Amino acid sequence: MSTSFLLQSRQRNRRRKKILLAHKQRNAEIQDPFLPVQRRSCSSHTLLRLYSPKKGSGLLLLLWVLIHTVRHSLLRKYQKTGAIFGRQRMWGSIGWGTFAPIAGTLNDHTGDFLVSWTVMAVMLLLFLWNISKMELLKPHFSQNILRDVGAVFKSKEFLIFEVMIFMNGVGTGMVWFYLIWFVRSIGGSELLCGLSLAVQSFGGAIPFMFFSGWFIKKVGHFNLLIVALMTYVLRFLFYSYLYSPWWILPMELSHGITFGLYYTVLASYGKMSSKPGVEATTQSVIFSTHEGLGASLGCVFAGIGFDYLECHRTFFFASMFFACGSLVGLMLRFALRRRTAVIKIISVNEQ
Fold first, then answer.
1. CA-to-CA distance for 43 and 244, rounded, in angstroms?
2. Which has the higher per-residue pLDDT, 341 or 253?
3. Euclidean distance between the first and final Cα of the chain, in Å?
4. Residues 42-50: contacts with CB within 8 Å, 24+ apart?
5. With the CA atoms of 306, 309, 310 and 312 taken in that order, what torsion angle do they form, in degrees rounded to the nearest 10?
6. Are residues 86 and 210 in contact, defined by beta-carbon separation less than 8 angstroms?
7. Does residue 57 carry a pLDDT above 60?
8. 197/63: higher pLDDT
9. pLDDT at position 247
10. Quick check: helix, strand or coil at residue 346?
11. 142 confidence band (pLDDT: 50, 70, 90)
12. Cα(223)–Cα(113) distance, rounded to whole angstroms?
């Protein structure tokens, strides 16, 4: 009697497990895209299987470096105002936002990056051909470039700007090179990665670049750097609690402040703070601090965090870092304003 009872109980448990399993499978087939999905590990050991180096990637990287060198040399052509530069740079964001979803779709359907890399290489070669046909302005060179650049570095205001640019560059590196990694780790598709870049461009960078001259005039260069740091606080804090990949799209509108507006501020301030004949050199120093120093260290910090802390905790600590950076920026702004006020008082008394 007891044996038959145990057998019946086991059979009922098996049937119950089969029903639960079938119910879970039906729910998985009809899944809300805004609900959390199965996630991958954020560590490099897991995701490098997806993004393993391919043949020809070194040649593409060399071409990419050449393009960036030529692009920064074109800053000499636009030696006017931040608004003019912003409207020229805006077209780069249009191309970025247009082709990112296309590349994501190609990657999803082919399961490889070869097709999208080929399209990229063709577009870069067309870019070089177009540059060769342009009538570029002949730059005015300084007679004593070391003296003029040294005078810029003696400015305490310029050095304070460099500190702010470095902190913003850390955030830029994390977004440029680890945001896609993060989206993939929480279950996002290649198409979603492309759509996030499209939202960054069309919803964020393009409008702010177009009206960058107005923002710079009304708010000021230094204040906009502080606003960018504060935006990183909210952006990374949002990422630290994000588990549903599609919800990343609304937050990518903030890219308009952290890149579109911020990038134009760098070019405008580089032209404004330099002496005639060293504008390109001064801008190279500024962008080297932003991309060469800040963004590279941001990649290092994010890589260590993704491997040892997990991606959500990495973004949380990054948010705290930028909160501290915002406070440092406010204190530096107060000190800079106070110093300017003291100089004005002294000059008035001397008169």
1. 19
2. 253
3. 113
4. 42/181, 42/182, 42/185, 42/306, 42/307, 42/310, 42/311, 42/314, 43/306, 43/307, 44/303, 44/306, 44/307, 45/307, 47/181, 47/184, 47/185, 50/184
5. -100
6. yes
7. no
8. 197
9. 94
10. helix
11. low
12. 40
Please tell me the distance from the alpha carbon of residue 101 to that of residue 174, in angstroms, as a whole number.
21
- Cα 161 from chain centre: 19
Task: Give the C-alpha separation, 218 to 133, whole Å.
Answer: 37
Comparing 309 with 39, the larger pLDDT belongs to 309
The candidate with the shortest Cα–Cα distance to 153, out of 289, 298, 313, is 289
As a whole number, mean pLDDT of residues 199-207 equals 88
**From CA 94, how far away is CA 251, in angstroms rounded?**
19
- Separation CA 190–CA 19 (nearest Å): 34
SS (H, E, C) 292-336: HHHHHHHHHHHHHHHHHCCHHHHHHHHHHHHHHHHHHHHHHHHHH
**DSSP annotation of 133:** T
The two structure tokens encoding residue 246? 């599609």
Q: What secondary structure does DSSP assign to 158-219, as a single string?
A: HHHHHHHHHHHHHHHHHHHHHHHHHHHHTT--HHHHHHHHHIIIIIIIHHHHHTHHHHHHHH
Long-range contacts of 23-28 (CB under 8 A, 24+ apart): none
Lowest mean pLDDT, pick from 25-29, 128-132, 137-141, 191-195: 25-29
Rounded Cα distance, 31 and 37, in Å: 9
Q: What is the CA radius of gyration of the chain?
A: 25
